[in-house]
Design a protein that fits this description.
Number of strands of chain B: 10
CATH architecture of chain A: Orthogonal Bundle
Number of helices of chain B: 9
Largest sheet of chain A: none
CATH topology of one domain in chain B: Rossmann fold
Number of domains of chain A: 1
Distance between the termini of chain B: 41 Å
Shape of chain A: flat
Radius of gyration of chain B: 19 Å
CATH superfamily of one domain in chain B: P-loop containing nucleotide triphosphate hydrolases
Number of strands of chain A: 0
Oligomer: heterodimer
CATH topology of chain A: MetI-like fold
Radius of gyration of chain A: 22 Å
CATH class of one domain in chain B: Alpha Beta
CATH class of chain A: Mainly Alpha
CATH superfamily of chain A: MetI-like
Bound molecules: adenosine-5'-diphosphate, magnesium ion
Order of helices and strands of chain B: EEEHEEEHHHHEHEHEEHH
Order of helices and strands of chain A: HHHHHHHHHHHH
Chain lengths: 260, 263
């Protein structure tokens, strides 16, 4: 009984995949949705293999993934930097807060068309869109994290003679890092969404554009194949963040495991 | 003897103009080099607030604190605090040894290797050999407390302020920790100001007990404890001098409580 749980735990990824595929094939077999709109798994795999061998998907995927990754790195750096600046200056903090209150609720799809006019279809467009939607989770988490550092820790630093900037680098940032990473993880997901949506609307390259093309051509197996690829890309991006987080806040993860 | 720390007519109030909450009023005290002084007062009377003022971590509203003949305007070099919330004052991303070394960052005339050796020596003195590379959250609460005390000692301060460091442990551990603290103070010639709400502890540990009054608090009595050192949990606590000092402090606190009740 217990060893079955352990076994299930160890093989949870293949088990889940098998479950999803099983249910998928089951639904497909019932033929509720026409085969044209809900292809079988083998059909999807075949279509995906086709795209893979002609090279089109690899080029598109590299473009998309690099955009999401670079966008995330820039946005996270900018978000944390803004959080630090806000922490130093209450006036700036209020200013950024007003800006974020206005901009944050706008979904990327709403300003991509405008941005295409203003910035064209190149790097600038993606930089603008991704950073604008991805910067907020890191910024807001960063501000909250810096504010919630225990006063006892800050006093400890002051007592041992840390200056204001030393307090920031040696006490407050390390203490805030776990929560900052919560924001970055969230930003990773948003970054990918922003890239895909932008590519769909900008209509030139990337997985987003590819999905758009295939949808219009009613190539359903290809669309589903690309959808799974996007899901995989999201997991890969999250995994990269997790690796960084593990290396930078190992102490926190150890502490949390111990608490349980 | 020379005073290393003095407070003159010091006051501290929290809140603003409308909801002013005076915690300390007209408080004066002085600590001499080499002394072990206890500061005893009931919970909530303002002991932590007082210690923060003495350490330059918060500014008094009135009066002045002087440390080593200088007005205290921020945390001065040569003064360390073992905070009441000791477990949170240890930095969880540093190992026990690195926490101690962090406490030694203002120690001069020692290179890195010498500091490491000293830090290890002090960890050994509090019985934590073998736990140098553990993180604070990997050791028990009692051990964390000893790391915090070790860090205070390691700073090689002229004066160590301890805020109820033994409040949260059982009686036996507490007795052991009292003796450990006295040993450390002796061994490292550490001048100490120990804050406690436990009268017995205050008398047992100290050369001099300062009794705090009700809020807004000030020092209402000084009791000199003429007991020989080293102290002993059995012998000292049965010594007539101990009993007399304890009686005096308890009597005073009881009188204050009665006065407050009838007022
Ligand atoms: N930052 C603060 N603002 C307002 N009131 C405070 C603050 N810190 C402590 N107090 C109040 O001051 C009183 C004394 O607190 P404290 O110095 O911690 O007492 P003690 O250490 O003797 O238990 C308490 O009533 C507490 O609620
Ligand atoms: Mg207190």
């Amino acid at each position: 009984m217990n060893s079955a749980v352990v076994l299930a735990e160890r093989f949870r990824v293949p088990l889940c995949l098998a479950l999803v595929f099983g249910v998928w094939q089951g639904v497909h077999g019932l033929a509720i949705v026409p085969d044209k709109f809900f292809p079988s798994i083998p059909a999807i795999l075949a279509a995906f293999w086709q795209m893979l061998t002609d090279g089109s998907v690899l080029v598109a995927w590299t473009t998309t993934f690099l955009r999401a990754l670079i966008g995330l790195v820039v946005a996270a750096t900018l978000g944390v930097a803004l959080a630090i600046l806000s922490d130093l200056s209450p006036v700036l903090s209020r200013g950024i807060r007003y800006v974020s209150d206005v901009l944050q609720p706008i979904p990327p799809a709403a300003f991509v068309p405008m941005a295409v006019f203003m910035l064209g279809l190149g790097v600038k467009l993606y930089a603008f869109v991704i950073v604008l939607v991805t910067v907020w989770p890191t910024y807001l988490n960063g501000v909250a994290a810096l504010q919630s550092v225990s006063p006892v820790q800050v006093n400890t630093g002051r007592m041992f003679g840390l200056s204001r900037s030393q307090l920031l680098w040696q006490i407050r940032l390390p203490a805030a890092l776990p929560q900052i990473f919560t924001g970055i993880r969230y930003a990773a997901t948003i970054s990918l969404i922003a890239v895909i949506v932008s590519e769909m609307l900008a209509g030139r390259d990337g997985i987003g554009f590819m999905i758009y093309k295939k949808v219009n051509a009613l190539r359903t197996p290809e669309v589903f194949g690309l959808m799974f690829l996007v899901a995989f890309s999201g997991s890969a991006l999250n995994a990269l963040v997790a690796v960084l987080r593990r290396s930078m806040t190992a102490w926190h993860m150890g502490m949390m495991e111990r608490r349980e | 003897m020379t005073a290393i720390l003095t407070a003159e007519a010091m006051g501290k109030a929290y809140g603003g103009r409308e909801n002013r909450l005076p915690i300390i009023e007209g408080l004066s005290l002085s600590i001499q080099r080499g002394e072990f002084v206890s500061l005893v007062g009931p919970s909530g009377c303002g002991k932590t607030t007082l210690l923060m003022c003495l350490a330059g971590l918060i500014a008094p509203s009135e009066g002045q604190v002087r440390f080593m003949d200088r007005a205290v305007e921020g945390p001065p070099i040569g003064l360390s605090v073992v905070f009441q919330d000791y477990s949170r004052s240890l930095l969880p991303w540093k190992t026990n040894l690195d926490n101690i070394l962090f406490g030694m960052r203002r120690v001069v005339g020692m290179d890195k290797a010498a500091k490491r050796n000293k830090a290890k020596e002090i960890l050994a003195a509090v019985g934590l050999t073998g736990f140098e590379s553990h993180y604070p959250w990997q050791v028990s609460g009692g051990m964390q407390q000893r790391v915090a005390i070790a860090r205070g000692i390691a700073a090689q301060s002229e004066l160590l302020l301890l805020d109820e460091p033994l409040a949260a442990v059982d009686a036996q551990t507490r007795a052991d920790m009292q003796d450990l603290l006295l040993d450390l103070a002796q061994k490292f010639q550490q001048t100490c100001l120990l804050v406690t709400h436990d009268v017995e502890e205050a008398v047992y540990m100290a050369d001099r007990v300062l009794v705090l009054g009700p809020r807004p608090t000030r020092v209402v009595r000084e009791v000199v404890v003429g007991l020989p050192k080293p102290r002993d949990q059995l012998v000292t606590r049965e010594d007539p001098v101990f009993l007399h000092a304890r009686h005096e402090v308890l009597q005073l606190i009881r009188d204050m409580r009665h006065r407050k009740a009838s007022a």
